[in-house]
Design a protein that fits this description.
By secondary structure, the protein is an all-alpha fold. The chain has one domain. It has a two-stranded antiparallel ribbon with strand order 1-2. It is globular and about 60 Å long.
Length: 498
Amino acid sequence: MKPAFIVRLILFAVLVISPGFAEDKTPSGGQHAAGQVVSHAPEMQGEIAAEHHSPLPPMWLVAPFGILLIMIATGPLFYPHLWEHHYPKFAIALGTIVAVYYGFLMDHGLISLLHTLEEYISFIALLTALFVASGGILIKFNSVGKPLLNAAILLGGAVLSNFIGTTGASMLLIRPFMRLNEGRLKPFHIIFFIFIVSNIGGGLTPIGDPPLFLGFLKGVPFFWVIGHVWHIWLVTVLAVIAVFVVFDYRAGHGKANPNPSSGRTLEIHGSKNFIYLGIIILSVFMDPAVIKGFPSLQEMFHVPFGIREIIMFAVAYFAYRTGDKEALRGNEFNFEPIKEVAFLFVGIFATMIPALQHIAAFAREHGTDFTVTKFYWRTGALSGVLDNAPTYLNFLAGSMGKFGLDIGSAEDVRQFVAGTASPVPGDSNSVIYLVAISVAAVFFGAMTYIGNAPNFMVKNIAEQAGVDVPSFLGYIFKYSLPILLPIFFIVWWIFFNL
């Protein structure tokens, strides 16, 4: 599989997700699901408001999203051959149904599609760049996988997620983590890696996970989250790691190789790719919403991407062409994991538009009646199966409305962040609402494979290595519900049961 498939997929998305794009000259922006954000130009606020207040799509249009989720859950189990060879067609066909309806039958439908196209291109640009750059870094732990060593790596990965994002940390560490446990690698090793490194770990900084970056763009100070969430993050991470250690001790020693390849504890090949990773992370902030006066290609040329996305695709290309061959071979690097994510998520992005719009309407209508508990659980439940970034924004807007504040006003956001007394007697101030929404949006992404993009990528890499990872439903019923849900309940009981 060559990188060119990404280009072809994006060109198809331009035609499918945005019919009539060439005629629609409206600059736009939005946010994406798994690690990258594009910003709305100020002059777009009126058009965005028009979109938000336009008639809702019919409820039946949510069905393609449900059907796609069901197929993702059942395909590998009940019709694996059909699913393996044709999942791109299923994803694109279901996405096309929604795109055609929005393109031809919905008021302001083209605006919604245009925003979604921008979000998708931002999404796939970041994931492709991080996947390729990290794939050219070969890390070898010359040791035997043991519970405490594994726990230390997971904790280190959780911290690292806040500096290079959950996707970057996952792609960098999943292969060495599997090699370290060669001969004793079990499905739970992969699952707990997804829990900690691919999701919960990134809950401290705007770089870590996209909902927090969206909050940063809206006016939440960069270090606000770590200042208010660190104790919740630490309790949750340590609780999940503690459960992992129990599992790992019960797994025994297996047949791990006791003979390291060299006398060094740690070997790194392809270290020049860390420069590429740095460029990718810096490019995240190349946005007019972050850097005043930064040029916007969307505004100037009416294209569904910006300078940031061009840089990310360029980094992916050069990282692959100049990558350390030994590192690429050692990682058994191929494009299959990013291919699966690219095709499945083009369908997910398109089909979830109606669901997100209904959620937004619900949050606007009922947000004033919600307690901290309701915001925590509803944000979390929806973040597990939908794009957690717009889910975060919708419930943030709903919680701010409860306090008589507007998410579109930077001054109102600053007031909300600083702490505003609730108009409801005996209710908590605004800070605890923002903390609850932030925690739930990030943490609950670990509940399903589609909760966060790195989940699927880690799963695919593990499958290619011969690990018998659980199915979509197996992941939920065997691991996330019995392990994560009780921990998230305890988090709620301690911090948000107000």
